[in-house]
């Protein structure tokens, strides 16, 4: 009787193992994508609203990442506004005018940029078998950041803070520092 159950049990265990492995991010380090220069587009949700934007990230020469250019694309009232972060200094450009942001406004944009230079150890992981998404928690509560990957993807489909104050749904993640021939583009 026990010999009949053993193959069925072994088959079930192997099936679950294959499912979990197939949902894991392509890189052994889920944050390896952060070091490369990239152009990213997506939707940022905050307590002040939802914004579509494009983000240009230079190669990360040091941690945490300190530079980027963010161009707001929607809603219409903010379309074309550019936020530039260089060495911790944050400016906003609209048309011909460029202004430094207040320390409170700058802190919000710096916190958003921090989603692209997450530091710390993987503290949790969850695989959603229905959607094929793997989510890893980086760091410790309450500062933990959750990074979600579509099955087998090396770039995130969503990055969000544990407190829910920032959530960025990635629609496209394109590496701009080519390491191989062709394009390295991920569309989520």
Q: What is the molecular shape? A: globular
User: Could you list the spans in which at least 5 consecutive residues all have pLDDT below 50?
Assistant: 6-27
Cα-atom radius of gyration: 20 Å
The percent of residues in helical segments reads: 10-25%
Q: Could you describe the 3D structure shown?
A:
- The protein has helices at 2-23, 103-114, and strands spanning 38-46, 49-57, 68-74, 82-86, 89-94, 97-100, 122-128, 133-138, 145-150, 158-161, 166-175, 185-187.
- The protein has 188 residues and is α+β, with helices and mostly antiparallel strands.
- Strands 1, 2, 3, 4, 5, 6, 7, 8, 9, 10, 11 and 12 form a twelve-stranded antiparallel β-sheet that branches.
- The model is unreliable at 6-27 (pLDDT under 50).
List the helices and strands and how they pair.
Blueprint lengths: L1 H22 L14 E9 L2 E9 L10 E7 L7 E5 L2 E6 L2 E4 L2 H12 L7 E7 L4 E6 L6 E6 L7 E4 L4 E10 L9 E3 L1
Short key terms for the protein model shown above:
single chain, 188 residues, alpha+beta, twelve-stranded antiparallel sheet, 2 helices, globular
Summarize the structure.
The chain has 188 residues and is an alpha+beta fold. The chain has helices at 2-23, 103-114, and strands at 38-46, 49-57, 68-74, 82-86, 89-94, 97-100, 122-128, 133-138, 145-150, 158-161, 166-175, 185-187.
């Amino acid at each position: 009787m026990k010999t009949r159950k053993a193959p069925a049990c072994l088959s079930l265990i192997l099936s679950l193992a294959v499912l979990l492995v197939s949902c894991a991010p392509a890189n052994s380090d889920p944050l390896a994508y952060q070091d490369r220069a990239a152009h990213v587009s997506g939707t940022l949700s905050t307590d002040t609203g939802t914004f579509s934007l494009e983000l240009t990230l230079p190669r990360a020469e040091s941690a945490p990442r300190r530079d980027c250019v963010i161009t707001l694309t929607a809603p219409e009232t903010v379309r074309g506004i550019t936020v530039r972060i260089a060495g911790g200094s944050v400016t906003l450009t609209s048309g011909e005018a460029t202004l430094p942001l207040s320390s409170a406004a700058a802190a919000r944009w710096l916190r958003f940029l921090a989603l692209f230079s997450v530091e710390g150890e993987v503290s949790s992981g969850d695989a959603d078998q229905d959607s094929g998404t793997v989510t890893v928690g980086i760091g410790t509560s309450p500062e933990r950041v959750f990074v979600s990957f579509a099955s087998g993807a090396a770039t995130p489909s969503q990055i969000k803070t544990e407190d829910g104050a920032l959530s960025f749904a990635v629609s496209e993640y394109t590496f701009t520092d080519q390491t191989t021939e062709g394009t390295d583009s991920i569309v989520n």
